Amino acid sequence: MTDLTDAALGVTLVDVAPLAARLEQFAVERDWAQFHSPKNLVMALTGEVGELNEIFQWMPEEASKEAGRDPQTAQAVQEELADVLLYLVRLSSVLGVDLDAAVQQKLKANALRYPADKVRGSSKKHSQPEAGESGKD
Amino acid sequence: MTDLTDAALGVTLVDVAPLAARLEQFAVERDWAQFHSPKNLVMALTGEVGELNEIFQWMPEEASKEAGRDPQTAQAVQEELADVLLYLVRLSSVLGVDLDAAVQQKLKANALRYPADKVRGSSKKHSQPEAGESGKD
Amino acid sequence: MTDLTDAALGVTLVDVAPLAARLEQFAVERDWAQFHSPKNLVMALTGEVGELNEIFQWMPEEASKEAGRDPQTAQAVQEELADVLLYLVRLSSVLGVDLDAAVQQKLKANALRYPADKVRGSSKKHSQPEAGESGKD
Amino acid sequence: MTDLTDAALGVTLVDVAPLAARLEQFAVERDWAQFHSPKNLVMALTGEVGELNEIFQWMPEEASKEAGRDPQTAQAVQEELADVLLYLVRLSSVLGVDLDAAVQQKLKANALRYPADKVRGSSKKHSQPEAGESGKD
After folding, report:
1. Any CB–CB contact under 8 A between C133 and chain B?
2. pLDDT of residue B8
3. How many angstroms separate the CA atoms of B4 and B102, rounded?
């Protein structure tokens, strides 16, 4: 494995800078920055993720794959995903975290942690993690 | 208010396409796409948000603003933010949701819902919502 | 419908008083009551619920019904359920909420909101709610 | 330390049996038991915890201690705490977990893990855990 990671090569995987600027402006115009501590924003993010759970809680797994087909469900899903992303980007901003760098680091760690030939087809090998997970062990 | 929104003007606020492609490849190489139903991914996302809560649960609000200064806390925060984003992008992919379009729609709705001159400085006016919130009423 | 509810009849549905006393003692002995604000405890509760999600996130719904049969999974589930209950009881204590009264009130509201003959067999009728839910409308 | 734990002595710390029976009856009358898989119930529980977060997200920690004084907030808090408990008890039922036994086991483990004279006054010593936490290390 070489060190030619995306970051080293200057590849960008996620660009949220325009959104972060927009959210900062939105908060400043309303004098809401005072409420946007990381602690508060984590709770706000949690609330939105709770709403996402409410959409899917009684839905069978197979039906969840078609959630985009029913217009009403699709609209609700889209709104909650947007809300989660808005709070996540705002939280990263106030914490000074570069999401692209964070993601690149995590993907590199995941590639080492989950070698394709060892974990193929097994959810046990990634019982908690997935495409990027620090793990607890 | 004109209809010259960012979307109409062709402005992109978030670009997660390269990351989405990377996560798809990561899943395919491991034969993990079979586990990535929206329902499962919502739960995985929730697990990561839970870990974010654990970092901040006993931290006073003021201290949370400085969470990026302690190297150990900063690293933990960065990893959890990355994990949340990875699952959010993967979830949007399997649902076929365009996060940029979703965010643009939500921001437009928020601007109408929270006029700056009416909600300035009040957290009551956005008791649940913030920089993008569909609301429940 | 008469007013002979359980509460009116003096029936107790949940009794958590001995546990609440034990948790208070535990906190006092460690001088931890200072950290147990409602806001902090909500986050701690959320962290535990996140861990519960991690146990079930890749598990098919059918398999989740048998989660108690595998000793390792059963032990993990039992620990997380206990953690959720501990924080919930502690949170109720510091807020001064009587959980039995709260539950009785909620069950009464649910019985009115979900008449058996109207919602039978339909998850749509309780898309968010279930055995006790205030609803958002 | 003797083995004279509460469980050994026959002490009950939590009794949720009457509520569990009531919820079973409620579900059966509506033919809702079919939706109450552990996986679904974990998501429903998460949704309620999300609503609890929404109440406290912009509230300063000090104000959260007085959340019971404002009648409207108190009512909302009481309803969400009830909802969380209802789903938690229902989830434990379908999983066949004895909450009292689970709590007793957890308290015993916590007493060993957090000796009062070693962790007094420090939130660092219980950065994730509290009155009952399995820990990840």
Report:
1. no
2. 60
3. 17
Closest by CA position to B73, among listed A44, A39, C40, D115: A39
Residue A31, phi-psi category: left (phi > 0), alpha (psi -120 to 50), beta (remainder): left
* Alpha helices, DSSP H, located in D30-125: 38-56, 61-64, 71-95, 99-113, 116-119
For A30-84, write each residue's pLDDT tens digit: 999 999 999 999 999 999 999 999 999 999 999 999 998 999 999 999 999 999 9
* Six token digits for residue D102: 């689970």
pLDDT at residue number B96: 97
Residues D38, C56: Cα–Cα separation, whole Å:
8
- Statement: residue C73 has pLDDT above 90: yes
Q: Quick count: other Cβ atoms within 10 Å of Cβ C38?
A: 25
B80 touches C at CB < 8 Å: no
User: Exposure pattern of A26-55 as b/e (b: 16+ CB <10 Å)?
Assistant: bbebbebeebbbbbbbbbbbbbbbbbbbbb
Whether residues D40 and A58 touch (CB distance < 8 A) is answered with: yes
Polymer length in residues for chain A: 137
- Give the distance, in angstroms, between the CA of residue D4 and the centroid of all CA atoms in the same chain: 25
Do the beta carbons of residue B100 and residue B15 sit within 8 Å?
A: yes
Q: Which residue has the tokens 């107790």?
A: C12
Looking at beta carbons, which residues of chain B come within 8 Å of C51?
47, 50
- Residues sharing a CB contact under 8 Å with residue C92, sequence separation 6 or more, in sequence order: C16, C20, C98, C99, C102, D81
Spans in chain B with pLDDT lower than 70: 1-9, 125-137
Nearest to A129 by CA among D40, B82, C66, D49: B82
Q: Does C73 touch chain D (CB under 8 A)?
A: no
ipTM of this complex > 0.85?
Answer: yes
* Candidates A37, A103, A105; nearest CB to B65: A37
Mean pLDDT for all residues in chain C: 88
**How near does any CA of chain D get to the CA of B9, in Å?**
34
Q: List CB contacts (< 8 A) between B53 and chain C.
A: 43-44, 46-47, 50
Residues of chain D with pLDDT under 70: 1-9, 124-137
